[in-house]
Amino acid sequence: MQILPSEQIREWDAYSISQEGISSFQLMQRAAFVCFQRLKPHLLKSEKIAVCCGPGNNGGDGLLIAAYLFQFGYRVQVCAATGRSGGERSEALAYCLSAGLEVNELTALDPTAPVIIDALFGHGLTRPLKGEYLELVQKINASAARRIAIDIPSGMPSEPQDDVFSVFVRADEVLTFQRAKQSFFLDEYGAYIGSWTVLDIGLSGSFRSEKGIYLLDDAFIGGLIHTKPRFSHKGSFGSTLLVGGSEQYPGAICLATSGCLLSGVGKTFVACSTTARAACLNLAPEAIYIEGDDHAGLLLNSENQSYTCIGVGPGLGQKEGVAEILLAGLFKRTNNWVIDADALNLIAKGRAIFPEGPKVITPHPGEFDRLTGVHHSTGERWKTAREWSRKHATVVVLKGAYTAVFLPDGRQFINATGNSGLAKGGSGDVLCGWIAGYIGRGYPVDEAVLIAVYLHGLAADLAVKDIARDALKASDIIRYGERVAIKWEN
Prior knowledge:
- The protein is of the alpha/beta class.
- The chain has 17 helices and 18 strands.
- It folds into 2 domains: 2-212, YjeF N-terminal domain (Rossmann fold), CATH 3.40.50.10260; 219-489, UDP-N-acetylmuramoyl-L-alanine:D-glutamate ligase (3-Layer(aba) Sandwich), CATH 3.40.1190.20.
- Helix 2 packs across helix 3, helix 10 (295-302) runs parallel beside helix 11 and helix 16 (445-463) packs across helix 17.
């Protein structure tokens, strides 16, 4: 699914109106009726429903929704902005009045109503609320009502702005038209939305735009994945080297190794400490473990083999002088790279430099900030990641509640699979290995990243059907990752 900026949504509206030969008001009626149909089974006719309508088209949607609910026997209070309004919003107001509804001023809102429908401002808002609208939104948020926003919570921008807007409707549910909005995926806004649902209002399917970002889904990922042909062997599917697992952090490389094996890569090599090697042999005996009593020995022995991809960082440690020796030698190679965890932190501290060749970095926000500077919002971090990816020809996997992937060609993808159970140590190590495995297997770098990110989250979603989110472990992701793979093979 393509997530379009506000300007493109307006163009899509206009294009649909032109293609179908309908009026703007007819499109508004269609959108409002779809909302009404969605709301109807979830509202009680005995409870009061307050509908707050702004001065623009979002307010027009609200007026029509209120009228449809009233005509169907619901108790509705309409509170609407006064003053001049033109176009389809005026037609919506006339329709509302003709239905027999009394239209009150916004100040008349009953905050004790069990349900408040927010239709004050839509996706075009580009500046913070002020005056009576600011006060009204604060009043709505202070109420105990179930808050339902139409298209987008009022006061929330649809895409990142230079400044974070601090006052907007804290919506329990958002009914958004045709496409999700970028702000739903930003920590500074999305954390205040209970849930959101995309409603199809019938905009033209032939509209095309090169702008926007993309939301990963089954159909897209399914088009990237291919199964192994029967007539093949392990040499047909490349090799991956994973480097990490110091004496202090043996578990991380074990998890990365197991993640790598989920990809179907032909051979997985692991360069790690003796302690980590002993642990990994129990968890992942299928891998090939490189012998070496110290980092210099590991480096020497790993150089005797060529690899389709090298993943470095999980459990590497930052012991002074040791990791640098390994990275300084290892990074002389020109290779496909996945760089994570301690390797990123060492680079951020100036103790190592990026290697040559196609690269993927997989930072969480703290690691990314150490590498590029402090950010004050997810939107600001996205902007830097987009620019950084282009400048350094590197795929950036910015991990978070909605992991975002930035490609050097300017494209951005958002992953909606996964849950809060992933917010614990080890989850990222599994992802690092999984990505490195798919690249090692021979997938194009961008496709490998998108597949692994999506399946990693999907495995967590499958796991929490059987395991409490708080109890989810990184090793569970591996176990359920094996089950996720069955879906695509079938």
